[in-house]
Amino acid sequence: MSSDTFYADLPPLKQFLELANPQNYVEAPNDWYVLITDVVDSTQAIARGQYKEVNVLGASSIMAVLNATAPLEIPFVFGGDGALLLVPPTAVQAAREALLGIRALARESFGLDLRVGIVPLVAIRGAIPAGIAPQYSVRVAKIRLSPSYCQASFIGGGLTYATELIKTEPIYRLDAPGDRSATNLTGLECRWQDIPSPQGHTLSLIVAALPSGGYVNEYLYREILETIGDIYGEGESYHPVAPSALNLSINPGRLRAEAKARAKSAKWGDRVIYTARAYLESLLGLGLMRFDVEAGGVDWGHYKASVRAASDYQKIDDMLRMVIAGSPAQTDQIVTYLESRLAQGHLVYGVHVSDRALMTCLIMDRRDRHFHLIDGADGGYALAAQQLKARLQGKAQNWQAYSRLARRRQQLGQGARQT
User: Fold this and answer.
1) 412 lies in a domain?
2) CA 16 → CA 34, 208, 314, 316, 343, distances in Å?
3) What does DSSP say about strands 356-365 and 188-189: parallel, antiparallel, or unpaired?
4) Does 398 reside within a domain?
5) How many domains does the chain contain in total?
6) Is residue 197 part of a domain?
7) Which domain holds residue 342?
8) Number of C-beta neighbours around residue 349 at 10 A
9) Any domain includes 414
10) Cα separation of 400 and 382, whole Å?
11) What does the pLDDT look like over 302-320, one tens digit per residue?
12) pLDDT (tens digit, 9 = 90+) per residue, 136-176?
């Protein structure tokens, strides 16, 4: 396979459960790069009520890179307050400029700091002697969500390691000034109302398997997915997006985050002009869907169903991420199960409960190439990740305390023997 077309040439899987089988993944080419963005202090931003702005910046990172590197197929994962992408060497410079532009936009329009980093895969895998497996790898698979769109999945620990590198090693961070006017966010839309859970709870869930747990990580994810099926039902019974619950907003205030990102500048007048245009487009979309019109090559009567099909409500990027709709009783059941696995040392997890989901859209072609990023409202993945990190830190502290106690007992034992 050509390096540039590595991802495009990957055969797509058909069922999400197949992503829990490590044998379905392929090593990414060694000359590719990992791009990472995340909103600094996103928890504080969410506490100030900026959870939609945080989501939009994560989605903007993806849209900017996809537009800058088109027509290449680029694998990515949306993480709520940021994104992970893989690009070939021929596209890394264009992607770099796009992300620097988003970083500038974050400061000018949102008053937020977007951390941006680029890590070559060779830095993740390191200089490994022949015949010895690297400690970290980036292995890729994809699953078909719609006739013309696939979602990427990653295992191997390499993306998690790369995320730590950009936080601890300045050499991998991009701190140069960027130009927001050079960034193309065509296709970024945030026009749906928040999507209510039919049974009251929308659960944002992140699970990370622990190597010390004695499981192959991805097989543990398979067990978790099967347990979720037992609790919530088979198929897509816990899908947070129901076509009947999808409604375009006609509230201009709902377009505020999109307008901040896509207006020509941060000036008030430019935002008003963009909001007015987006509002009129929403009114047109409402009419087309209500009367089942076919226009522009789009069957608007079935558009909501296609939106649901192309939604990323479950994914793997070294961790299992899901947005699940269910009842409070089902939330209690899955948390009880995860607590038992946590106590056994198999995993750490984080959850955030809301009563609705948030959707941000990437529209490359409204007819057949559109993708929809799902998060729980009011903080979703970002707050679930904060909880997971706290649990992980607690486990590390407990292990350090246990190690100190074990060493002390050993020293006391040696002293007693010498006496």
Assistant:
1) no
2) 23, 17, 8, 10, 27
3) antiparallel
4) yes
5) 1
6) yes
7) 6-402
8) 24
9) no
10) 27
11) 999 999 999 999 999 999 9
12) 899 999 999 888 789 999 999 999 999 999 999 999 999 88
